[in-house]
Each structure stands twice: as structure tokens, then as C-alpha cells.
Amino acid sequence: MLKKYIITFLISMVPIVELRGAVPFGLSPALGGALPVVPLYITCILGNMLPVPFIFFFARKILTWGADKKVIGKFFTWCLEKGEKGGQKLQEKAGRGLYFALFLFVGIPLPGTGAWTGTLAASFLDMDFKKSCIAVMAGVILAGIIMGIASAGVFGAAGAVMGA
Questions:
Q1: pTM, to two decimals
Q2: How many CB atoms lie within 10 A of CB 160?
Q3: Closest CA to 126 of 78, 65, 83, 93
Q4: Cβ–Cβ contacts within 10 Å for residue 133, how many?
Q5: Sign of the CA dihedral 114, 134, 86, 78?
Q6: What is the pLDDT of residue 86?
Q7: Helix axes 98-107, 115-124, angle to 10 degrees
Q8: Using H for helix, E for strand and C for coil, what is the string for the chain?
Q9: Rounded Cα distance, 148 and 162, in Å
């Protein structure tokens, strides 16, 4: 069981996959069965939030530094462009409700949204760190709830089809 918690924690830290992949994995019957919901969410939220301060304070600097490097330049440039576009879209649509928009951006589990992209966008927009972290964490919690409900529906339907 500890192994599944560790894997779930690590999955929730991975960019793009994040909590959106960790919750369904934790609820799946793989590796010894589904994890209890509350400890699963706590594990996923902690794993998803752990990289946030590093992304906010260092990712932009590292991406700018690596954008002109031979091996990593294309990927770093892509990340910079994604962060800039995400920040611009967020600012255009939000206006004065920027932190609420950040919360929704992170919380609605669509491809390309999440704590990593939201935090990078907040960094590009020079948003307040504390307020950004609160908005991102609230978004991560919302995404976890949405993914849990969606996963329960998928796994419930699969169980009914397979006669479990």
C-alpha cells in the first residue's frame, strides 16, 4: 500500500499529468486496490503543490537560460511560449479577477492546464506569490474533486460491465 502512495505522490508531481493522472491511478484497482479517498487526495495535493514554489521562483529563469542551448533549446522555448501564452490568455479574460481566473485555469482539468502551467503563468505575470499559491492550491483541490468524480464513474461503470 505504501508503494502505491509513493507512486501516486510522484505521478502528481509530473508536469502535464499532475493530479489529473494521480487521482485515477490512486482510485484504480492496480497495485493492490484503490486507496482511501481522503489520504489519496492529501497525497495528490501535496505532490502537485510541492513543485509550485520552485516553478514560481526559478522556472522562468531556467527556461530563459536554456532557450538558446543546443539540446534543450526547443523544449525550453516551447515551455516559455506556453507560459507566456497562458499568462496572456489569463490576463485578457480575467481583468481584475486574475486570481479567480488562475483558480479556474488550474481547477478545470483540461489538457495544458494545471498547477505547473498556472504557476508558470503567474510567474510571467509577476503575480503575488502567496495569493497565487492559494489560487493554485484551490484549483488543485477542485481538479482533484472533478477527477475523483469522473474516475468513480469510469471505474464504477467498468466494474458493472465486468460483473465486479
A1: 0.81
A2: 9
A3: 83
A4: 18
A5: negative
A6: 74
A7: 160
A8: CHHHHHHHHHHHHCCCCHHHHHHHHHHCCCCCCCCCHHHHHHHHHHHHHCCHHHHHHHHHHHHHHHCCCCCCHHHHHHHHHHHHHHHHHHHHHHCCCHHHHHHHHHHCCCCCCCHHHHHHHHHHCCCCHHHHHHHHHHHHHHHHHHHHHHHHHHHHHHHHHHCC
A9: 21
Q: Which three cell numbers stand for residue 48?
A: 502537485
Give yes or no for residue 21 having a pLDDT over 80: yes
Contact 123, 58 (CB under 8 A): no
All three cell numbers of 82: 506556453
